[in-house]
């Protein structure tokens, strides 16, 4: 069993330090001098008033030193562990003749999320720190309730009159059972001998706990010398960036970079030799393949950490003058948690990441298995990473990819069939809103399937005018859009489709503009719903599907069959025809106008048991998203 001392990075939060004492019999007589002094001593200890407690002992200096060490080691005032402790001492018994008293103590430790056997889990190697950027979301996995850890014992104390009135005879064992003048006491967590891993969909190792080194420097360090050594592993770290970080820190040390063992090895001694540089070892949960990154892994790491917290052991130790534990006073051994298997497919993930690397704008790909809801890939490029987990929680107008929803609503309303001939003029004034097609292309009158495949805005706007206020919202919910999930290991937002209460609002919503928003995850869920015929519950941790906040009935099977056929036509003879060489591909392109900048580009696709969405912010058209989809699939 490995025992790890508490470090400043591990916090035990609101640990209640309670020295609860067995109640003594009530008496109408005034308390004796022994009882009165013992009560004062207990009260001072309960309030962590070291000065007051030490003052009434026979050796205030020794008492002060010992009490400071007790509170620091177990989580009271001044604790390096970050524990918030609330002690309570009560005298349980006194013996007036022997001038002794008895305390019954109960220390209650309540760990928080930071109370871990090692440092907090992290999944990425970043230049400045290993903290991941997160965005606001409406669904996440619930945090576990902290487990209370309790230690109880009784101690004996004595009082004596040494010429200045009664004093508590100082003995550290009166406060903590077993404590001596040569020892102090410490609360620590215990890790299991084997640390669980995160496995991918195939059962292959995906993430494991690894040792990393934090390269810290203060204002006296030569930033240029540090940057020259670490830049081969972290190209964004420069003398200028380090100088800015130090200036912002106002004289406090900063972490220049966090490096894996294989990276620090050739430069460790050189870095250590630079004045003002300190190296700090920690453990982090990292991907085994350093090329693999995903915003989804941050939530997976949180699930892994929850399991570590739940299975971690703890101990209260006597500690000798050299800082080494000499005796375990109480505690529980750690247990080994199970490996955590996730739905991510390593090959699909790497393919998705590689498909985005060439794009300068923020871009994301999310892919699901329609038959199971398994999330097989969540990829972003560096520009997207700088904005947070946009693949899962970024909300954008979905543009023409939303025509899958609009067409479904129109088909369900009985307004049209796929063969119905509908007008597709280059532009149309609909309810006072001029709707143009891309470059004002004009198809005249064509079957609905053709209007869908060629992405006629004018057709869709006209179809939506006569729909009920909630028709688009309800049709979107049938495909999972606007439904949110609490999914273990995955924080997501699908999107929002408010009711369109006026014809003008319905025109805007019909083409994925106005108040309609969707995340890349949300549009991947739409594609998966069309592929499967109903919305699959998303899965990240195998065996733990997400729970929806609502469960709309799926769209009629005939309608989803017809939407799939239209998406096939889109690839064969419509706006996604550049991907027609990909057998079995169904898809829908989208361009979404945004105020003050170029349009966003989208592509949602289905190929066998794979449904996905590609998003490119500011792509100006769907072309970059189509190209990325081609790279991903090929």
Q: What are the key terms here?
A:
634 residues, alpha+beta, Nuclear Transport Factor 2, Chain: A, 3 domains, 19 helices, elongated, disordered N terminus
H/I helix tally:
19
Helix amount, in percent? 25-40%
Q: What is the straight-line distance between the termini?
A: 49 Å
Q: Runs with pLDDT <50, length 5+?
A: 1-29, 78-83, 113-122, 126-146
Question: Could you give the count of β-strands?
Answer: 26
Query: Rg, please?
Result: 32 Å
Q: What count of structural domains?
A: 3
What characterizes the major β-sheet? 5 strands, mixed
Helix/strand-derived category reads alpha+beta
Report the CATH superfamily of the largest domain: DD-peptidase/beta-lactamase superfamily
Shape designation: elongated
Q: What is the percentage of strand-forming residues?
A: 15-25%
Give a written overview of the molecule.
Keywords: Signal. Residues 99-111 have a biased composition (Polar residues). Residues 92-148 are annotated as: Disordered. Residues 1-25 form the signal peptide. This protein has 634 residues and is an alpha+beta fold. The chain folds into three domains: 2-111 and 146-189, Nuclear Transport Factor 2, Chain: A; 125-143 and 193-310, no CATH class; 346-633, DD-peptidase/beta-lactamase superfamily (Beta-lactamase), CATH 3.40.710.10. It is 28% helix and 24% strand. It is built from 19 helices and 26 strands. The strands form eight sheets. Strands 7, 8, 9, 10 and 13 form a five-stranded mixed β-sheet that branches. It has a five-stranded antiparallel β-sheet with strand order 15-14-26-25-24, sandwiched between helices. α12 (403-412) packs across α15 and α12 (403-412) packs across α18. The model is unreliable at 1-29, 78-83, 113-122 and 126-146 (pLDDT under 50).
């Amino acid at each position: 069993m490995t025992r790890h001392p508490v470090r400043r990075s591990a916090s035990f939060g609101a640990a209640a330090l309670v020295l609860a004492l067995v109640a003594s019999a009530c008496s109408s007589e005034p308390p004796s001098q022994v009882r009165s002094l013992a009560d004062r001593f207990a009260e001072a200890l309960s309030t962590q008033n070291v000065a007051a407690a030490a003052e009434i002992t026979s050796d205030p200096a020794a008492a002060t030193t010992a009490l400071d060490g007790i509170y620091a080691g177990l989580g009271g005032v001044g604790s390096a562990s970050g524990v918030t402790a609330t002690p309570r001492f009560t005298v349980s018994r006194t013996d007036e003749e022997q001038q002794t008293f008895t305390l019954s103590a109960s220390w209650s430790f309540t760990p928080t999320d930071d109370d871990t056997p090692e440092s907090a889990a992290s999944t990425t190697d970043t230049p400045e720190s290993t903290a991941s950027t997160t965005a606001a979301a409406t669904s996440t996995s619930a945090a576990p309730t902290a487990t209370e850890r309790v230690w109880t014992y009784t101690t004996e104390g004595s009082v004596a009159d040494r010429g200045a009135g009664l004093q508590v005879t100082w003995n550290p064992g009166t406060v903590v059972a077993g404590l001596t003048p040569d020892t102090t006491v410490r609360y620590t967590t215990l890790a299991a001998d084997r640390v669980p891993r995160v496995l991918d969909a195939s059962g292959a190792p995906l993430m494991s706990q690894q040792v990393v080194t934090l390269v810290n420097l203060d204002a006296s360090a030569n930033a240029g010398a540090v940057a020259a050594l670490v830049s081969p592993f972290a190209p964004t770290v420069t003398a200028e960036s380090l100088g800015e970080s130090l200036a912002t820190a106002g004289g406090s040390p900063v972490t220049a970079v966090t490096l894996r063992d294989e990276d620090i090895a050739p430069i460790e001694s050189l870095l250590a030799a630079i004045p003002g540089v300190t190296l700090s070892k920690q453990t982090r949960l990292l991907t085994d393949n350093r090329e693999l990154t995903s915003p989804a892994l941050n939530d997976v790491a949180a699930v892994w950490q929850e399991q570590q917290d739940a299975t971690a052991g703890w101990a209260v130790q006597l500690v000798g003058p050299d800082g080494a534990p000499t005796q375990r006073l109480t505690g529980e051994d750690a247990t080994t948690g199970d490996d955590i298997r996730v739905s991510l497919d390593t090959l699909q993930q790497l393919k998705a990441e590689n498909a985005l690397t060439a794009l300068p704008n923020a871009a994301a790909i999310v892919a699901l298995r329609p038959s199971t809801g398994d999330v097989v890939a969540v990829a972003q490029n560096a520009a997207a990473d700088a904005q947070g987990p946009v693949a899962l929680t970024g909300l954008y107008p979905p543009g023409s990819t939303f025509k899958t929803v609009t067409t479904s609503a129109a088909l369900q309303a009985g307004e049209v069939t796929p063969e119905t001939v509908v007008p597709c003029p280059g532009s149309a004034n609909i309810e006072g809103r001029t709707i143009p097609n891309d470059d004002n292309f004009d198809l005249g009158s064509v079957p609905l399937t053709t209007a869908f495949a060629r992405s006629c805005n004018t057709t869709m706007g006209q179809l939506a005018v006569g729909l009920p206020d909630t028709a688009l919202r309800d049709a979107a919910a049938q495909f999972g859009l606007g439904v949110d999930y609490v999914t273990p290991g995955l924080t997501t937002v699908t999107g929002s489709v408010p009711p369109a209460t006026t014809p003008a609002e319905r025109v805007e919503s019909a083409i994925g503009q106005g108040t309609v928003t969707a995340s890349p995850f949300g549009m991947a869920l739409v594609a998966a719903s069309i592929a499967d015929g109903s919305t699959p519950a998303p899965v990240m941790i195998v065996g733990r599907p997400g729970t929806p906040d609502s469960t709309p009935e799926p769209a009629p099977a005939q309608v989803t069959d017809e939407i799939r056929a239209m998406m096939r036509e889109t690839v064969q003879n419509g706006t996604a025809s550049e991907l027609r060489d990909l057998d079995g591909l169904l898809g829908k392109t989208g361009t979404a106008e945004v105020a003050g900048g170029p349009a966003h580009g989208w592509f949602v696709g289905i190929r066998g048991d794979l449904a996905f969405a590609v998003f490119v912010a500011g792509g100006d058209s769907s072309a970059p998203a189509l190209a990325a989809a081609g790279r991903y699939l090929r």
